[in-house]
Design a protein that fits this description.
By secondary structure, the chain is an alpha/beta fold. The chain has helices at about 5-10, 25-40, 45-55, 80-85, 85-95, 115-120, 145-160, 185-195, 210-225, 230-260, 275-285, 315-325, 435-450; strands at about 70, 130, 140, 170-175, 195-205, 270, 300, 335, 345, 350-355, 360-365, 380-390, 395-410, 420-425. This is Acyl-protein synthetase LuxE domain-containing protein.
Length: about 450
């Protein structure tokens, strides 16, 4: 068994954070060397990057740093490919960043990006899309091998964050997430909530699928309007569709809340974003529901979703008080769409354990210098990057936009892997975000490969 396969096997174990091997660092280095030798032959962009940076072999973790892809590289396709329906070009773009050939993706008759994603899935490329709040989604490839390991890895991390509770098909479950869609969390949340729900007690706000074009269409229409390729009539038709969709969602919310009220004194598991959770609190208070009028063992999976929301300064405390929640009933994790599995929240310490198949690389803000402690023990603070050994359909080296504090060799509560003590987005900090030179370089390789 290869070093990579040994580490991937931990993805299906109940607690990979505490059962990781004692020689984890050595095994990780061996796995990274295996992955580099293999992926360089499969991913042209990686081979080009290795050639230009002079990295011919991986001797230390520092050798990985010049080979990291930026999270933004996965949205490096020209928007014109989607605007004008050049789906063969999208196949060519995807091939520059993924492990497997893409010429088997049938693009005949493809109407939009979601149609293209469906065709890719039919060919064994299980792409997922980022939320695309900027108007441009990232597309990351997954193989069936990726999915087989990543989904149980996510579920195990979820379970570790609520150590006093176990999924047993005995709760009423309320979730904002539909069962289908292009977002990574649709599959994970369906698998997760189904384990907790009693028969007939999985209640979705809506089962309209999450589509990539939902977030991409407004920016596309603005571009096409500026270029004179759409008229006011098409814009008006789209706005009518959005009004109708908001109306359907508002009606569905009322029905969803009725069910939540009727079941609030039984065991519950509720999943939503902080911004929506505050809206739910306001709506339920307006219906006369008082703080704490819920089952004492209610669990709520909540996080994110505050961007653009109007919230009071103490929104978190108010939400916790309203639902009668304690920290041990707030499952949480640290992750990003480019990462296989989650970093599990370790209760009651409020830190996140990194899974053994994820090798953390803490860098300086520019993303050029490795700050990991040389002896494998101690704290490093800087830009979060990592190597994902589990990743099968793409290169595992990623540099993120997060500023983190990572502790190596803590041994906290029996955890054998590094732990993340704090997380923030550079763009949200006073110091701001800088452009990464690696992102621009890799984007130029992608453009050159497509042109060729």
């Amino acid at each position: 068994m290869t070093a990579a396969d040994q580490l991937i096997a931990y993805a299906t174990k109940p607690d990979p954070f505490r059962t990781a091997p004692d020689d984890l660092a050595e095994l990780q280095m061996a796995a990274i060397r295996e992955r580099f030798a293999e992926r360089r032959q499969q991913i042209r962009t990686l081979d080009k990057r290795a050639e230009e940076t002079g990295v011919t072999e991986i001797r230390t973790l520092a050798d990985v740093v010049p080979l990291l892809f930026a999270h933004t590289n996965y949205k490096s396709y020209p928007e014109a490919f989607i605007d004008t329906g050049r789906w063969k070009h999208m196949n060519a773009w995807l091939r520059t960043l993924c492990t497997y050939p893409t010429d088997d993706i049938d693009v005949n008759g493809v109407r939009d990006v979601d149609d293209w994603l469906d065709r890719a899935r039919a060919a064994g490329h299980y792409l997922f899309a980022s939320s695309g709040t900027s108007g441009k989604s990232s597309f990351l490839d997954q193989s069936q091998k990726d999915r087989d390991a990543a989904i149980p890895a996510c579920l195990n991390a979820f379970d570790l964050s609520t150590p006093n509770y176990r999924p047993n098909h005995d709760r009423s479950v309320f979730t904002m997430m539909p069962s289908r869609g292009t977002h990574k969390m649709t599959e994970v949340s369906t698998a997760h909530f189904s384990r907790w729900a009693a028969p007939g007690e999985l209640h979705r706000l809506s089962d309209e699928p999450i589509l990539a074009m939902d977030s991409m269409r407004p920016a596309q229409l603005r571009r096409m309007l500026a270029a004179g390729k759409v008229g006011p009539g098409e814009i008006a038709a789209y706005e009518e569709q959005m009004v109708a969709k908001r109306h359907r969602r508002a009606e569905a919310m009322e029905v969803w809340l009725d069910k939540l009220i009727s079941r609030r004194h039984g065991p519950l598991y509720v999943g939503m974003m902080w911004g929506v959770a505050w809206q739910v609190v306001e709506k339920l208070r307006a219906r006369g529901i008082r703080d704490g009028d819920f089952h004492p063992e209610m669990i709520m999976s909540v996080g994110g979703g505050t961007k653009g929301a109007v919230l009071p300064d103490d929104y978190r405390d108010q939400i916790m008080r309203f639902f009668g929640l304690t920290e041990d009933r707030l499952p949480n994790s640290y992750a990003m769409v480019e990462m296989s599995g989650f970093c599990a929240l370790i209760q009651p310490h409020g830190v996140y354990a990194i899974p053994p198949w994820i090798v953390p690389l803490v860098l300086d803000k520019t993303g050029e210098k490795l700050l990991n402690p040389a002896d494998g023990r101690g704290i490093a603070e800087g830009r979060m990057a990592f190597f994902d050994i589990l990743a099968d359909a793409r290169w595992g080296g990623i540099i993120s936009g997060d500023k983190v504090q990572v502790e190596f060799g803590s041994g906290l509560d029996g955890v054998k892997t590094p732990i993340v003590r704090s997380v923030a987005r550079y763009q949200d900090l006073a110091e701001g975000e800088d452009k990464l030179t690696c992102a621009g370089s890799i984007d130029s390789y992608v453009r050159g490969a497509i042109a060729a």
